[in-house]
Amino acid sequence: MAGIDVGWRVRQGYPELTPPGQRAPLVADKLYELGRYGQKTGAGWYRYDGRTAIVDPEVTKLIEETAKAAGIARRDVPAAELVERPVYALINEGAKALEEGVALRASDIDVIYVYGYGFPPHRGGPMRYADSVGLRTVLDRVRQFERQHGEMWKPAGLLRRLADEGRSFADYDRERAE
Description:
CATH class of the largest domain: Mainly Alpha
Largest sheet: 2 strands, antiparallel
Low-confidence stretches: none
Structural class: mainly alpha
CATH architecture of the largest domain: Orthogonal Bundle
Oligomer: single chain
Distance between the termini: 44 Å
Radius of gyration: 19 Å
């Protein structure tokens, strides 16, 4: 396991690894400055009793104060967005992997996520899930996230192309098999 101190050291030593437009992890840096590195120090994002994480009101207060000082409006995040942001990020990155030839088929990405990372099997993997939602819906939402959160959400060219053509990742796989 790597603590808050490891992330801090990577950010300090390799600033070029930070994607353009990515918001600085202000709270994580403050936790580092407070010596709250995680389980190894008994405190990080949580307080720890052994390996048991305990919500720490001091961290909640730190988050609220830091957001206010940075002019970051806090909001209730709808349940749907709690699903969309991580899953649509997987889909967009999967489309980039297909474009770059890192993955041959969308179904290969799905197999990796279902069997390797525990993606819900009944959803079929992130790329199949994207097909079930509709690539136009995914693309529109990714574009909204790009407007809100910056360049790291730039839609993959393949996602844009397939959505514009009214096609799916399954169509892409069939095309590649021919």
